[in-house]
Write a structure and sequence with these properties.
263 residues, binds NADP nicotinamide-adenine-dinucleotide phosphate, 8 helices, globular, single chain
Length: 263
């Protein structure tokens, strides 16, 4: 599974949030193969051990750091540690996120808040630090992992959809304000990706009293390609957005959904 062109990210220093598993780990591995130096984060440094092993030996620097992304002080310390360790940060991938599924009328305010704190405030805090740093050095790339839920309606996940619509808005506004520097700010909007987040879908299916396999089959049946995406397929786009190949692109929301909603 090493189809990347080597060197597409060589000399680039990247901060990746949510790098312990799923899409974030796949991005860390693809960035390592591309030659980037890495500053990897998750809720705890210990959670990054497997990713650290997976990217070891690629030749670049790898630093792991635990931080609660919804806590502004922790994000402040995290970004300062990244600049300190890598010298500067050229690419920031905002990938950390959470999912809580619930019919609209049944969400508690605490559940709504918990999703917003990670998916919106977390991204906002990291983007602010990234923009200030990149404005000072006169260049940079920000890659936000939003979702098809950031573009469309979906049943029983209004909090998640609201949070991902906000990520799309943050992406577009930051892109517009910083295009002249240039700082490229783009988002990837994946559909259904096979990761641990699926366990949250399972909890949701349980609450609805639906068998998880039926719930999953119903989700897959809406995908024209008839399958879930793999994290590596999202990582390939993140490599492109972090590389000079995408220098002319900003403010875009790239859908990868196995063909759902082609318009
Ligand atoms: N899977 C999908 O179908 C899908 C589809 C579209 C978009 N996405 C988006 O893609 C991103 C990654 O999803 P995934 O499926 O790979 O999820 P995942 O397997 O559940 O991994 C989530 C990652 O986010 C980190 N994280 C969660 N809460 C955090 C917090 N409060 N502070 C710091 N880090 C935190 C986790 O760290 P720990 O290991 O330390 O908990 C983990 O590294 C998310 O933004 C998600 O919304 C996923």
């Amino acid at each position: 599974m090493s189809k990347d062109q080597p060197g597409r990210l060589s000399g680039r220093r990247a901060l990746i949030t949510g790098a312990s598993r799923g899409i974030g780990r796949a991005i860390a591995e693809a960035y390592a193969r591309g030659g980037a130096d890495l500053f990897l984060t998750a809720t705890s440094e210990a959670n990054l051990a497997d990713t650290q092993k997976a990217v070891a030996g690629h030749g670049g620097q790898v630093v792991c750091h635990g931080a609660e992304i919804s806590d502004e002080a922790e994000v402040d310390a995290m970004f300062a540690a990244a600049v300190d360790a890598l010298g500067q940060v050229d690419i920031v991938v905002n990938n950390a996120g959470v999912y809580v599924g619930r019919p609209f009328a049944e969400y508690t305010a605490n559940e709504f808040d918990s999703v917003m704190k990670v998916n919106v405030y977390g991204v906002f805090h990291v983007m602010q630090r990234a923009l200030r740093h990149m404005q000072e050095k006169g260049a940079g790339k920000i890659v936000n992992i939003a979702s098809t839920a950031g573009k469309w309606e979906s049943p029983n996940q209004a909090a998640y959809n609201a949070s991902k619509h906000a990520v799309v808005a943050l992406t577009r506004c930051a892109a517009l304000e910083n295009a002249g520097i240039p700082i490229n700010v783009n988002a990837i909007c994946p559909g259904f990706v096979e990761t641990d987040m699926i366990n949250e879908f399972k909890a949701h299916a349980d609450r609805l009293g639906v068998e998880f396999e039926d719930f999953k089959a119903a989700a897959i049946s809406r995908v024209p390609m008839g399958r879930a995406l793999q994290p590596e397929e999202i990582a390939n786009i993140a490599v492109y957005l972090g590389s000079s190949e995408s220098d002319g692109m900003t403010g875009q929301t790239i859908t990868i959904s196995g063909g759902m909603r082609m318009g």
